[in-house]
Amino acid sequence: MGQKIMRKFLLQHYPSGGPLSDYIEDLIISGFLERDRTWSLQTGVESKLGKFRIRDNYVRYYLKYIQPHMQKIKKGLFKTLSPFNLPGWERVMGLQFENLILNNREVIWQMLGLRPEDIVFENPYFQNKTSKQQGFQIDYAIQTRFKNIYLCEIKFSQNPISINVIKEIEKKIKALKIPKGFAILPVLIHINGISHTFEKGNYEDYIVLA
Q1: Whole-angstrom Cα distance, residue 43 to residue 199?
Q2: How many CB atoms lie within 10 A of CB 124?
Q3: Global pTM?
Q4: What is the largest CA-CA distance in the chain?
Q5: pLDDT at 124 over 90
Q6: Better-scored residue on pLDDT, 9 or 93
Q7: What is the pLDDT of residue 1?
Q8: Is 190:207 a contact under the CB 8 Å cutoff?
Q9: From CA 78, how far away is CA 99, in angstroms rounded?
Q10: 145 in helix, strand or coil?
Q11: Distances (CA, A) of 24 to 9, 21, 46, 111, 134
């Protein structure tokens, strides 16, 4: 989620150690970065494990497309180029859309009928790979005091969503270690519709937000 872009930029401009931690904290306070921490589903307590996310969409766009091509842009070589023809455009737009959702997560709560006081923890969730468990990341998850875990998959595509998305979600559900008595409620957040190749049975247990 922008992690590799940010890491590359920081390593290019700042040596390890020194005031880097202070700079990162300043960027978080100013709203350019976000530190997304995962948590224990068993206790609902925040973990020390976390990942940085570029919170500001323009910063990601700048680091991905403007800064690397600055000289060409100044020479006017990008004047007639459509953004849709830029390399990796759909993947970056996927990150931008995901970021938009995370920056406005209260809207998702409202659409799911959740009250803030019922939420134990919510954030992007990830599980590290070990000898006993698979590693994966969930775009956004919400744990409630009613022992429900909303597993949200956020998808941007210029074409209707394919059935492969459901297969990806099901794989994560099987790998997720949840406490006994908890229920997983899969949520698909998307735009541009669902492919006509879907059968109702493919996602009848899903909450679909479009």
Answers
A1: 37
A2: 21
A3: 0.82
A4: 62
A5: yes
A6: 93
A7: 43
A8: no
A9: 26
A10: coil
A11: 12, 5, 20, 33, 30
Helix (H, G, I), strand (E, B) or coil at 143: strand
Closest Cα to residue 61, out of 109, 97, 105, 113? 97
Task: Give Cα separations from 191 to 15, 106, 160 (angstroms).
Answer: 41, 18, 8
- 10 Å CB burial of residue 183 (0-12, 13-18, 19+) is exposed
The percentage of residues in the chain with a pLDDT greater than 70, rounded to a whole number, is: 86
Dihedral sign from CA coordinates of 138, 143, 149, 152: negative
Q: Which residues contact 139 (CB under 8 A, 6 or more apart)?
A: 98, 101, 124, 152, 153, 154, 189
Quick one: tokens of 29? Answer: 């306070």
Distance CA 156, CA 95 (A): 8
Query: Residue 52 pLDDT more than 50?
Result: yes
